[in-house]
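=== RUN LOG ===
request id: a7f3
mode: sequence -> structure
chains: 1
length: 432
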Amino acid sequence: MALQPLGRLRRRLTAWYVATFCLILALLGGGLFVAIRHQIAAQLDGSLRDATTELERAARIREMEARTARGQVVDAVDELHIPDRALYLLEPSGRAVKPPRADEWIRAAARQAAVAGRVERDRALPHERALRLHAERFTLASGVPMIAVAVADKVELEDRYASLIVAFGAAAIVALVLVTAGAWLLVRESTAPVERTIEYMRRFMADAAHELRTPLTVLRSRAEVALQHPREPASYVTALRGIEAESQRLGRIVEDLLTLARADTGERPVERTRVYLDDVAIDAAGAVRVVAEGKGVEVVMAEFEEAVVMGDAALLRQLVMILLDNAVKFTPCGGRVRVGVGTTAGVPTLTVEDTGIGIASDQLPHIFERFYRGDPARSRASATEPARDGAGLGLSIARWIAAAHDADIAVDSTPGAGTTVVVRFPGESTPL
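=== RESULT ===
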């Protein structure tokens, strides 16, 4: 139901694509039709001019053969056989010579050609037919002026127009079908990320609401219990400490959500300065060691080499803190967490290794998803017991920080044996 507006959007976009294509096709078709019609009309006029030229040539030849001013010149019309062309010889006065009769509009065209030298006319006929005329003045060798006229039925133009329209229409229908299918596929593919984003946002908001509801429920329960009956000051202190712990957890969740929201919208700028990764790791390990000792987990400094990366020192420290915090959190008492920094083939590398409970292989692909906590050991809070784990946002933030620094983060884990996280950064000379 929530994705119905997206479906309507797809249909509207497809309709707009198709309508735009139809408009372009109509404009293109109209332009092509006008251009081709002009070209075909020019070809017809050219063929009529060629016909009059042939008539003139034949008339001169017959004059030479007959050696008379007019003599057998009229036979030139009979000798020429030009398909679909009517040929006339007329005097400048408009009198028909051959054939002996001609319509008045042809005689008028001949009289006009006698003055202008050349005339082209159209003649409309019943039943939507039309004729095209070309008249041209020429002079016989004897000096006698004559008018050569060629007439063609423009139905051949209409036939060519009709065939052109049929061919273009068929091609347009096929193109329209293909464009409609292509537009739908294009719209579906282009809106697929939007659909995934919407679904992701819905799941993210549901998970966020659930995670925020848990500490809020604990806070309300503790406050209600503390206020039900008068108690000793020590009991109020205990209740307030529990409320404080849940408030801190709630604050961390909100802070992590804000960090991810800024990361998604690009509002968190990433600085680009030379940062010594080994110094950042040592500083973070020192801060985590206090928490680890309280849990009975040993934090060990492994091999450290000077490693310079271009990045944001605050974000890099947060990345190391997240990895160390997770390692300590899921390592039982008496376990060990090792952190080291080295350079392999010019690639600065951060390694965090623990001897904790490990991660099942089917859960590894999901550990960087927001709010994902697939291990049963990651218990949620209850109304009487504060939560001992986070909200499943830390590794998502770690992945974003790594991606912001063009770093590759890989996790290898064996259930019951521990987990190793390796982060490989581009070298100092490698552009980010």
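=== NOTES ===
Residues 10 and 191 are 8 Å apart (CA to CA).
Confidence is low (pLDDT under 50) at residues 377-388.
=== END ===
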